[in-house]
């Protein structure tokens, strides 16, 4: 049974390219009749997509009068579609920067709400290693810079004296399209070593990866490619690695401890944020704390402040309020990090501004 | 007597002059045929014009550097496609080599009296059925069957013959070898079917004459039949190559989408068609222009291959078939 589900997951990942092309044609708005459910459309990050899909499903059972649709197209495309106004809401793992905010239609206004947070994990597929890999900060940075070529490199061996590392080439798997996960990961790497940002691949939603990296579309594409490639390592949201049963590396955090991804370590990382600013844009490029998992990111919903149709605004407010409340338990269950109390309180305040 | 005259007079017979309706039908058919022919030419011209126009800003900005550079970086706005051109040509040539050898062998097997002609029909139908398999299925088959099968072989080749550039890296998963193999299978039906027709077109007398001169079966096939069918076989290879250049889905799934140039059969690479398919859905305006330029490059490659194929074909017609 699980085998079937997993195969279905692979199929879905493999077909993603095909569906993406189709979905463009399908996302055209259709006029809804009086009795048909109200359709609210959104698009963006793939990082929180499994969670949003689950939320939409759960919420639909309680509120059949509204139908939410979410399309995982990557954070960059999510922001772009939001700015074009072709969706009712966008989603991004990197909050919009000031340049992007300047492009928002002033009649509509913009609100960014963190809905969930997640860990960016380094999942790997090394023959003979079922788990327990530990990667020091400088090592995973150099792996993704293309400087360490083999799994039995002394610097990896030294950190893992218990593991029998094979002489296999390291294949890095990265995102091809504009991605908030890439931003969260490279933002972290830039914080570890400034030369990554200045003279290395750079920090951003699209960066200049070394040529031998394999590229894939979406978190699910990266997970799938890691799964079928010997010696591969890739970065993705926890849930995607978990679903394909990929082992995830314990990473060395700022205080020098090796921390595996998990609910506790993720929450510890979020708790390290000192103060939440008014616009809720919080980045944690290198969270402090002994137990903090080093790569975490909030994931934002992009909403308009003023909607043309009051029905859409009301539906969004209802569903998002539900997500910030009841939904957080589901998030934890699925490997995301529930938002800290202070954050949900601030988010609810901001949510009230929508009309 | 009078009956006979009446019969000749009647306009309803078979030999009557054409009616106005028949004239009209004839004219309409003629104009439809002419229109269809011109519409096709117009369509090709329109597609070229449209792509060219959209690509123009990129052509003006990147110029020839687009073809010789190796980076594709959206954030810095640097675009160039040498690795993709390399990957396209390398994978297609490998596929042509494999698919060509197998396709022509199959054609010889099916037409040169190796098996009963009814069996040959069955074989031919099965080979042609390969063409009916959707390319996404080939991609999945490649991922779940072919790659796991190739891994041990590739590992052994890399370990023992690693100094040889073709085996310079290990096959980690997706890469050039599985992509080229699947591509070879995909062009096999095209090559085989057209080659079979080329052999069938040779008059039976030619073979009889060859045997009559005392050739062995192999001499007849290699020295008489193959050269005589060569123009048709070349047409088959050109069509197969064209198909390989443009194949998208299976390659996007199997080639590993890695922006590098490597001689190794086992390292991941990328192709133009795969680049187009995977970057278009969410490309920004500048990237779309660059992608249109890449599409033009792909069109140019296909065009050049077809022209070269045609030239070689005419040369062989003159050389082996004695026509002018």
Automatic annotation (TrEMBL), chain A:
GO terms for molecular function: phosphate ion binding. GO terms for biological process: phosphate ion transmembrane transport. Keywords: Phosphate transport, Signal, Transport. InterPro entries: ABC_phos-bd_PstS, PBP_domain, Phosphate-bind_PstS. GO terms for cellular component: ATP-binding cassette (ABC) transporter complex. Residues 32-317 form the PBP domain. Residues 1-33 form the signal peptide. The complex is composed of two ATP-binding proteins (PstB), two transmembrane proteins (PstC and PstA) and a solute-binding protein (PstS). Part of the ABC transporter complex PstSACB involved in phosphate import. Belongs to the PstS family. PANTHER family: PHOSPHATE-BINDING PROTEIN PSTS. NCBIfam families: 3a0107s03 (TIGR00975). This is Phosphate-binding protein PstS. It comes from Thiorhodococcus minor. The gene is pstS.
Automatic annotation (TrEMBL), chain B:
GO terms for molecular function: phosphate transmembrane transporter activity. It is a multi-pass membrane protein. InterPro entries: MetI-like (IPR000515), MetI-like_sf (IPR035906), Phosphate_PstC (IPR011864), Phosphate_Transport_Permease (IPR051124). Pfam families: BPD_transp_1. It is found in: Cell inner membrane; Cell membrane. The chain crosses the membrane at residues 28-49, 89-110, 122-147, 176-199, 220-241, 290-312. Keywords: Cell inner membrane, Cell membrane, Membrane, Phosphate transport, Transmembrane, Transmembrane helix, Transport. GO terms for biological process: phosphate ion transport. Residues 85-309 form the ABC transmembrane type-1 domain. Gene3D superfamilies: MetI-like. Its main location: membrane. It comes from the Bacteria. GO terms for cellular component: plasma membrane. Part of the binding-protein-dependent transport system for phosphate; probably responsible for the translocation of the substrate across the membrane. Belongs to the binding-protein-dependent transport system permease family. CysTW subfamily. This is Phosphate transport system permease protein. It comes from Thiorhodococcus minor.
């Amino acid at each position: 049974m699980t085998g079937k589900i997993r195969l279905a997951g692979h199929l879905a990942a493999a077909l993603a390219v095909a569906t993406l092309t189709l979905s463009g044609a399908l996302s055209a708005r259709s006029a809804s009749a009086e009795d048909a459910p109200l359709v609210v459309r959104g698009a963006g990050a793939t990082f929180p997509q499994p969670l949003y899909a689950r939320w939409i499903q759960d919420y639909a059972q309680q509120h059949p009068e509204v139908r939410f649709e979410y399309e995982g197209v990557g954070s960059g495309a999510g922001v772009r579609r939001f700015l074009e106004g072709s969706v009712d809401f966008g989603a991004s793992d990197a909050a919009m920067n000031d340049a992007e905010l300047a492009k928002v239609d002033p009649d509509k206004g913009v609100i960014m709400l963190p809905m969930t947070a997640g860990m960016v994990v380094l999942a790997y597929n090394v023959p003979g290693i079922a788990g327990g890999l530990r990667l020091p900060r400088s090592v995973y940075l150099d792996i993704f810079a293309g400087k360490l070529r083999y799994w039995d490199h002394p610097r990896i061996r030294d950190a893992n004296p218990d593991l029998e590392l094979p002489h296999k080439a390291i294949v890095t798997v990265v995102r091809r399209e504009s991605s908030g996960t890439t931003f969260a990961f490279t933002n972290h790497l830039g914080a570890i070593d400034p030369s990554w940002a200045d003279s290395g691949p750079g920090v951003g939603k699209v960066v200049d990866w070394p040529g031998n990296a394999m590229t894939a579309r979406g978190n699910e594409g990266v997970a799938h490619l890691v799964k079928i490639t010997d010696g591969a390592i890739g970065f993705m949201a926890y849930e995607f690695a978990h679903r394909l049963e990929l082992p995830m590396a314990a990473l060395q955090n700022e205080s020098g401890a090796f921390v595996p991804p998990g609910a506790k370590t993720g929450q510890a990382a979020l708790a390290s944020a000192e103060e939440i600013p008014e616009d809720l844009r919080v980045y944690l490029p290198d969270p402090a704390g002994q137990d903090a998992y080093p790569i975490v990111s909030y994931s934002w919903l992009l909403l308009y402040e003023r909607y043309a149709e009051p029905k859409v605004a009301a539906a969004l407010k209802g569903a998002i309020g539900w997500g910030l409340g009841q939904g957080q338990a589901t998030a934890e269950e699925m490997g995301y990090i529930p938002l800290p109390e202070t954050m949900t309180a601030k988010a609810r305040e901001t949510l009230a501004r929508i009309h | 007597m009078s009956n006979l005259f009446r019969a000749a007079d009647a306009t309803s017979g078979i030999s009557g002059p054409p009616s106005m309706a028949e004239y009209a039908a004839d004219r309409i058919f003629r104009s439809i045929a002419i229109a269809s022919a011109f519409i096709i030419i117009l369509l090709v011209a329109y597609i070229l014009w449209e792509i060219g126009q959209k690509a123009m800003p990129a052509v003006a900005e990147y110029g020839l550097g687009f073809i010789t550079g190796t980076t594709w970086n959206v954030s810095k706005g640097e675009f160039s496609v040498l690795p993709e051109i390399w990957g396209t040509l390398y994978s297609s040539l490998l596929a042509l080599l494999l698919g060509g050898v197998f396709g022509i062998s199959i054609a010889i097997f099916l037409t040169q009296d190796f098996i009963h002609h009814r069996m040959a029909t069955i074989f031919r139908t099965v080979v042609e059925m390969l063409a009916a398999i959707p390319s996404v299925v080939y991609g999945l088959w490649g991922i779940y069957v072919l790659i796991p099968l190739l891994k041990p072989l590739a590992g052994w080749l890399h370990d023992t013959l690693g100094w040889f550039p073709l085996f310079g890296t290990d096959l980690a998963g997706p890469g050039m070898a599985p992509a080229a193999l699947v591509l070879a299978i995909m062009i096999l039906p095209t090559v085989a079917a057209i080659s079979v027709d080329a052999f069938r077109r040779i008059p039976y007398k030619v073979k009889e004459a060859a045997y009559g001169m005392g050739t062995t079966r192999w001499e007849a096939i290699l020295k008489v039949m193959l050269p005589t069918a060569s123009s048709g076989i070349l047409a088959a290879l050109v069509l197969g190559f064209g198909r390989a250049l443009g194949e998208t889905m299976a390659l996007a799934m199997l080639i590993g989408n890695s922006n590098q140039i490597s001689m190794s059969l086992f390292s991941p690479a990328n192709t133009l068609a795969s680049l187009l398919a995977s970057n278009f859905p969410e490309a920004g305006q500048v990237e779309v222009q660059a992608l249109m330029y890449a599409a033009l490059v792909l069109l140019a490659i296909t065009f050049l291959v077809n022209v070269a194929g045609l030239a070689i074909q005419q040369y062989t017609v003159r050389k082996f078939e004695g026509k002018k």
